[in-house]
Write a structure and sequence with these properties.
Mean pLDDT: 89
CATH superfamily: P-loop containing nucleotide triphosphate hydrolases
Largest sheet: 2 strands, parallel
Number of strands: 2
Shape: globular
CATH architecture: 3-Layer(aba) Sandwich
Number of helices: 6
CATH topology: Rossmann fold
Oligomer: single chain
CATH class: Alpha Beta
Structural class: mainly alpha
Length: 134
């Protein structure tokens, strides 16, 4: 439902100034499919977190199973692919990699590994030397 609701122009027009006001003083971490392209295009640091569709589906499947919810791995993967396509093709704030973002493929990384990498970029201890993808 998030993808469907986020494509409603009235919802976006209402939320955008609210989100920008919250971020105006800086010092925030914002997560979402258009944070670096639409909401905060001038953000000091931008990361585009990604993982293979299979890995993302596996993670969601495990999350649902741990909550005791019935789940089907193949259906989850198909739903995720459909949402990705819907978000990439929508006319309002389509899903795309933000300019100057560091693309982080977390398919083979743990959460602590991803967080440590992002912190190293922010603290300057891991210069990318022109790379925009790991």
């Amino acid at each position: 439902m998030a993808s469907t609701i986020s494509a409603i122009r009235l919802v976006r027009e209402y939320l955008l100034p609210v989100q920008r006001e919250i971020g105006a003083s800086g010092g925030i971490v914002a997560e979402g499919r258009d944070m670096g392209t639409v909401v905060f295009p001038e953000a000091e640091f931008k990361f585009f977190l990604d993982a293979s569709p299979q890995e993302r589906a596996k993670r969601r499947y495990q999350e649902m199973i741990s909550k005791g919810e019935a789940s089907d791995l193949k259906r989850i993967e198909n739903d995720m692919r459909q949402r990705d396509d819907q978000d990439r093709l929508r006319s309002i704030a389509p899903l795309k990699i933000p300019e100057n973002a560091v693309v982080v493929d977390s398919s083979d990384r743990s959460i602590p590994q991803v967080v440590d990498f992002m912190i190293s970029i922010i603290e300057g201890s891991c210069p990318l030397q022109g790379k925009s993808k790991i």
